[in-house]
Amino acid sequence: MSDDCETAIAEAGWGIWHYFVVTLCGLLSLAEASTSLTVPIVAPLIACDFKLSREQATVAVATSSFGMAVGAFLFGSISDTAGRKKLIPITIGIVFCASVSLSFAQTNFLINLSVFVLGLGVAGNNIVLRVYLIESLPMRKKGACLAIIDTFWVFGYLAALGVSWSLMPSIIRMLGRQFRPSSWRVLSALCGVPSLVIACASGLLPSSPRHSLYRRRPRQTLALLQQMYAINNSKHADTYPITDFRNLEGCVRSDDEMDDNSGILMYFKKTWERVHKVYRPPYRRVTLCGTLACLLHFPGFAWLALWNTHVLQEMDHVASGNGTCNVNIQNVALGFLRSCDEVDDARFELLLLVSLGYLLGETLLVIGIDVVGRKSYLVSSGLAGSVASLVLIFRVHHTIRVVVSSMFLAAYAIGRTTTCVLLLENYPTALRGTAMGLTRILPHLAVFMLQFYLWTTCLLSIIVASAALMGAALVMLPVPDLTGLPMKE
């Protein structure tokens, strides 16, 4: 069945229609990334403004991670029922509303509620956007296009980091004043502004052709494919090779119990059935491997870069004869301020430098993931990243440590994006959103728990990071590599 679906999408060609969809999805990913550092950056500022302890400030960061765990599964499962296109503007709109709500929050409860909802929207958008995009692409372009939207994410993350760094000095100067034209509230709202703009533009996205077939809408799907064909090839829609919508009815297995008026009870019933299906053959192995791989990747782009930067700073202090090298999660999450009167400029500078490695990793993926294959990139990135991480153990010059750290983050970006592509390709349309949401629950919960309990040495954390990156690559080896082959249906 998936061969017929791939053929129907391939017959639509490749051109302007796809460039538009990939670019708009990339901008949505960029808008999501612009809020990726909002909570870690504003949390210490909130602590200074409200005279909170570091433990109280950490609660806000942990609450955001818990919101992501809930949002990933919630919106992933809803997308299998309601559709991908409908949820994209909703999730990115939630991101904007939560950012604005945070900027107006006056109590701890409202602050924590805002960051929880922000986590819901960010994780939900991350899942739904990738599921939507892979269902709209021909098989020879899936890997590269998913790497492209992750590249957009990195640009949004770097832009947010630069804007935050530039505003921090003026925000600190305004702390405690009655009239504050520049504060963490302004920064929170600014980070959410791209989400509002892109949420409006996301209405231009067409429906997912695979999900439309799953919802038994072959006539609507044929019209969409004809539109794609006409735009891509500058030909009349009637010349699209498939002329009868009934030829599409067997492409994706539909759900006979699903209808457009499904209520909340039907949603819970169908979600429960989907969860059971992804943990039964033939999907059980993919689910277990994917869940473990995502758990080993658990920090995510922003968190891993924060950890890496913290370790580099600790090593510099030890080299200067100042104490021992330790990793405390509170210092990782709240380290953008040295005190309420001083910005840690070194943290911002190092974070920008090492994060450039993400761009290198995603660029390598765009160039070759659909040519070389997923497994080759996965294993090579695991090996390279593990070796690069272990180099940090030795006494080397600061510049070498920064370069090696960038290489480690590049390998991490390759491994994480490749794992996402492998998982998306190995689930059918009926289960894809739910399965992807399930694989992201444990990583976010792990970060949530570690907010309160993690304290270790730099050496041990480096060894764990090295082993985790290699382990994440190895556990994905049993998952079929569908490079150049149809997705599972």
From TrEMBL:
The chain crosses the membrane at residues 57-75, 87-105, 111-133, 145-167, 187-207, 286-306, 350-369, 376-396, 402-424, 445-477. Coiled coil: none annotated. It is a multi-pass membrane protein. One of its GO terms (molecular function) is transmembrane transporter activity. One of its GO terms (cellular component) is membrane. Residues 18-483 form the Major facilitator superfamily (MFS) profile domain. It is found in: Membrane. Keywords: Membrane, Transmembrane, Transmembrane helix, Transport. Belongs to the major facilitator superfamily. This is Synaptic vesicle 2-related protein. It comes from Ooceraea biroi.
